[in-house]
Each structure stands twice: as C-alpha cells, then as structure tokens.
Amino acid sequence: MTPEGVKIAVERFWRNDPFYQSPNANCEEDAAPWDVFKHRFLKTSAEMVACKDETTRGLLEQLIARIF
Asked: Does the pLDDT value for residue 24 go beyond 80?
C-alpha cells in the first residue's frame, strides 16, 4: 500500500487481459459496467484492508483514477 504499489497494480491491470470493458466508454450503456466495477472495487477493497485511514483510501482512489 504505497504509491509505487499503485503504479505496479495499474501496470498489471492493463497487462492482465485485453478483453475487459474499457473504462473510457463513450456512451452511457458502455460506461455503466465500469461505474459499477469502480464503486464495488473501492467498497470491497476498503473492507478487505479494513482501511479507516485517509492514506489507504487515497491509494485505492489513486489506483482507480490511474486505471480510468
């Protein structure tokens, strides 16, 4: 849970699978799955790491922002 870890996670996300839904969708219907993923990711990640501090939440939000 460091800024360097966020960078590595983003790189791994983009390398993982070329067939995931693009977060940069141009229409509302295509963007909807990404919005659901983003909100669920942040909620589930926060629960998994039991993050109560701003730093950890900030890193999770940075990860999503860099992917998006």
From this structure: no
Question: In terms of residue numbers, what domain contains 60?
Answer: 3-16+27-67
Is the residue at 21 inside a domain?
Answer: no
Q: Is there a contact between 35 and 23 (Cβ–Cβ < 8 Å)? A: no
Q: Nearest Cα to 41, choosing from 2, 10, 7, 3?
A: 10
Count of C-beta atoms within a 10 Å radius of residue 6: 20
Rounded Cα distance between 43 and 7, Å, is 20
Q: What is the pTM of this model?
A: 0.61
Structure tokens given for 29: 């219907």
